[in-house]
Amino acid sequence: MNSTNENVENLPSRRNFILGALAVTLSSASIEASAAAKGHHHHHHGPAKHAGLLNAAMDCVKKGKLCKGHCIELIKVGDTSIGDCLEAVIDTISMCETLAQLAVSDSRHLKSFAKVCIEVCKDCEKECRAHKDKHKECKACMESCENCIKELEKIIA
Q: CA 92 to CA 123: how far, in whole Å?
């Protein structure tokens, strides 16, 4: 028997994989149904409370990563004018990833974190604004920062 056949034989069958996935799904559904039957509903928990903030933070991460990639490509070809933008967007990505997690868990530290996050997003928005007419990635990142700042201001109000 060749090594390719041995590797294929060691892989779980497609049927077993599907059955395993189904078992996990049914188990999760069973736990939720059990909790609901006991009158314990989770609709008041989780991301719904801060859905706007969560969406804004995740959009900032996504647009920030696109901007970061664009900045790196520009720097590779010698355009160092984008360096401050790159530094700001790196900070923003990190902050907004954490912000999203704090929003989902409705952390007791969300309000104090939001204050710092506003400053980081403002820095990024300012740097991206300088490049918005030249680079669509910077414009999109700037707009996502503006939206995130609006959502953050609701948290600290």
A: 9
State the Cα–Cα distance between residues 119 and 135, nearest whole angstrom: 23
CA distance 135 to 157: 33
How far apart, in whole angstroms, are the C-alpha atoms of residue 128 and residue 148?
Answer: 14
Co-location of 133 and 60 in the same domain: yes
Q: Please tell me whether residues 92 and 126 are part of one structural domain.
A: yes
Q: Range of 129's domain?
A: 46-156
In whole angstroms, give the CA distance from residue 9 to residue 31: 35
Kindly tell me if the per-residue pLDDT of 41 is higher than 70.
no
3-state helix/strand/coil string of 90-101: HHHHHHHHHHHH
Both tokens of residue 93?
């990505």
What does the mean pLDDT of the chain come to?
A: 81
Asked if residue 108 and residue 75 are part of one domain, the reply reads: yes
Unique residue bearing structure tokens 């007791």: 108
